[in-house]
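Pipeline run #58 for the internal structure catalog. This entry was flagged by the ingest filter as a single-chain record with no existing model, so it goes straight to prediction. Upstream metadata was stripped on purpose; only the residue string is passed forward. Reviewer on rotation: M.T. Logging verbosity set to normal.
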Amino acid sequence: MAGTLYIAGGAMRASEHEVLSAFIESAGGSSSRFAFVVSASGSDPDNTFRSYVEDFSRLGVPKENCVLIPLYAKHVKDERGFNALNGDEESLPRLFEGVTGVWFTGGDQYFTAQCFLRPDGTYTRALEIIHSIYERGGVIGGSSAGAAIMSDVMIGGGNNRGVLYRDVVYGYDTYDSLCEAGDPVEPLIIVKGLGFLRRAIVDQHFNARPRLLRSIEACLANREGVRVAYGVSEDTALVYQDGRINVLGSAGVYIMDCRNARKTGNGSYEGIALHAIHKGDNYDEATSQVELASDCDGEGKFTVPLDYVNGATIDGPAFDRAIYHLLCGRDDGLNFCPEKNKRYVKGIAVYEAHEKTFAVVLKYYRDDTTKGYRQAHTSFKNVGLAIKTSEIQLA
């Protein structure tokens, strides 16, 4: 049986000890050997490595059990003046001897892809070795950019504004020029990742940055037919083992199932199934079933209809408010769609992209299968999502 993936959404703060402790335990405990891939950092690899060694040391891992994999961005050298440059370098295999846990650090996933994938997209020897560690029951983890690289179809960059204003970019051929341009309206970039997770796309920083549209667009635009995305919040880890997902940390993982979805226009979509799981909940990838740790604790609580919830795009508390209202609102406290015969709540977000302004209206639907509960955040399953984007003129 394959091992375990620890996919952290970035900005690990309060939950770092919890996540890294679980990662170490899954890899065989503190006496195990761990490899650190700092490629994504793009600079100062030795200090990045030392920081993780200190973190692991505090959790009981001897410093001599931590090894730096010297693969860096092409412009970077370590304190020895060395850079293996690509994963086929002949000195790399011996560094992985005895390793049962591999951690990919944050930064820019572009650099990691350059190091571990050949120009034709095939795996370098180093990546083959890491896959063999995973297939033998080892543990692979990463945070932020180190999370993005986990999926076979990878989001290489972009934001919601770019989805609304610019065409999708496939591959990294123009990446350097896009970075040099410094345009804050970043196009969605779809590239090949490192392939540990094959049935879904990973997005990260999901509760802190506006990325809902880019995840949905990535599902519908990729050429490999991957139609599910996992949005991992900051200070949170998605733990993947044998097709089942659990959650560690302070926030949640959002599952966007676009297998029955379709794009109806620019930034407009129908037929998305949305779930959110937190610690104690889980998701079965094979059956697409969510198991929630609790039931709704306030059904029928809301009777006053909501017009629009400002925001409600996951990256803020407005989203939890809207979904909780959906879960616990009486029928007469919700909007009604006669075409779908479903109740719903509406959210709205406004995006500026150069000289254009876009209003994004989100409708969250419930039916008899929609369930959920609220603690620090709202967990739920089977919320329908439709999005309609319109360009507007502001006086």
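catalog note: The chain has a mean pLDDT of 95.
catalog note: The longest strand covers residues 378-392.
status: ready for reviewer M.T.
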